[in-house]
């Protein structure tokens, strides 16, 4: 079976900001990690292009909605993912025929099964969320919004909608969903998100409006073309249509359902309640896990396109580089919790952890192999207690990182496990003082010097493999400067399991002092 990972498909109402990149990066690291385990992986991302929000944005810009979506996809979203080295296997757009045709079939099937009925509905709607809200969750407006009710997420007025719509019998799934959460404790992550969903569903679910009839930018309801399918039903189905639902049984059978849907906590209910109910109604299997990330905050509020608080990832990568960017957000914020970005924090961590701890280790070791051994990696012939401790540290780091990143989606914990090992190797060098050993002309000292440098270089070989999913460019540079390719082959072919196997880098490898991994910040 394929390990199938997804991101949300993002609305193309505006260009991406740090928050979108955060979820996508986490998914990318997870996908790369599983590829490094030798698994067959499918990593999907894409864009959500229908609905009122996109339509209004396009109108405000005096272009048609499809033209607007094309522009944003080609000029903003896809170039950003390339820039950030996102290695997705597919990119789905909800305006593609491969998607819209299948959405119609899926909804027709629900209709045929008696899961959909017609009724009228009146209620507050947030266009930014594309969601009907419950009156109880709205906030009272103040200042310019005095007297109005506001969306709790966007802090903007909701609109009162009254429409004749089609409804999905979501309420009928309350008990089956609760039973599924109970039987599968890891279905929703983190624990706090799971509790929130369980409490919400326990109150009983209401049937869900699944069509809109006051505008037409969407997939038409097959049996009543006066309606378009509600944008969230359309969007959630991307996870099925992109891997061959009703089209390619072989691909679908080996890929669907997803092992992990990564989503922001704002859209958790859609994924943990509505999506599984849709699948149950259609007789399809449920995903393995819905993992919710917290929000990147600006001034204590969710960073958002709609509120114009988005910071562009390119503003940061221009200063810190792409790899440091990829590393920082996963390293600095515990996955699942909210976090804030600050230039000060990023700069401080870059300097102490990337440049001083990791970058310096690489440059010291490669420079010493150059200076003392003419760039030819010596063999370790005088192994002792200190070397054993390094080997044990590595075995621990590999096991920890694999469990934390690969299984628990604790990116921060996994990265820290590797960086603890980097610190251990730095400490080992400080203790062993190869620069002093080098001054001793005895044969014994020569063997010690060789052993120390071999141990440090071999440690770096493992670190390059372990950090490759997070910082692919840096690992590539290190791989090259260790001369690893000639004997071990391409970095892309290394396995996480290999990282722990001591002694893979052969004596005799040609080590060069490559470019500085993390240049000083200007
Ligand atoms: O909701 N912090 O699209 P969207 C962290 N089209 N993550 C953030 C964030 C922040 N400040 N802001 C956005 C939609 N995100 C729907 C999804 S899926 C079938 C349809 C991330 O463009 C986070 O993953 O509003 C959030 O869930 C997603 O962007 C919402 O993107």
Automatic annotation (TrEMBL):
Keywords, ordered alphabetically: Aminoacyl-tRNA synthetase, ATP-binding, Cytoplasm, Ligase, Metal-binding, Nucleotide-binding, Protein biosynthesis, Zinc
Annotated catalysed reactions: tRNA(Met) + L-methionine + ATP = L-methionyl-tRNA(Met) + AMP + diphosphate
EC number: 6.1.1.10
UniProt GO MF annotations: ATP binding; metal ion binding; methionine-tRNA ligase activity
EC category: ligase
Cofactor binding, note field: Binds 1 zinc ion per subunit.
GO terms classed as biological process: methionyl-tRNA aminoacylation
GO cellular component, as recorded: cytoplasm
Binding residues annotated for Zn(2+), in chain numbering: 126, 129, 151, 154
Residue intervals of the Methionyl-tRNA synthetase anticodon-binding domain: 377-520
Cofactor annotation: Zn(2+)
Segments carrying motif 'HIGH' region: 10-20
Segments forming domain Methionyl/Leucyl tRNA synthetase: 3-365
Domain of life from the UniProt record: Bacteria
Stored InterPro entries: Anticodon_Met, Met-tRNA_synth, Met-tRNA_synth_2, Methionyl/Leucyl_tRNA_Synth, MetRS_core, Rossmann-like_a/b/a_fold, tRNAsynth_Ia_anticodon-bd
Matches recorded under SUPFAM superfamilies: Anticodon-binding domain of a subclass of class I aminoacyl-tRNA synthetases, Nucleotidylyl transferase
Subcellular locations according to the entry: Cytoplasm
Coarse class of the protein's main subcellular location: cytoplasm
Chain positions of motif 'KMSKS' region: 302-306
Subunit structure, interactors included: Monomer.
Entries under PANTHER family matching the protein: METHIONINE--TRNA LIGASE, MITOCHONDRIAL (PTHR43326:SF1), METHIONYL-TRNA SYNTHETASE (PTHR43326)
Role: Is required not only for elongation of protein synthesis but also for the initiation of all mRNA translation through initiator tRNA(fMet) aminoacylation.
Family classification: Belongs to the class-I aminoacyl-tRNA synthetase family. MetG type 2A subfamily.
Protein name: Methionine--tRNA ligase
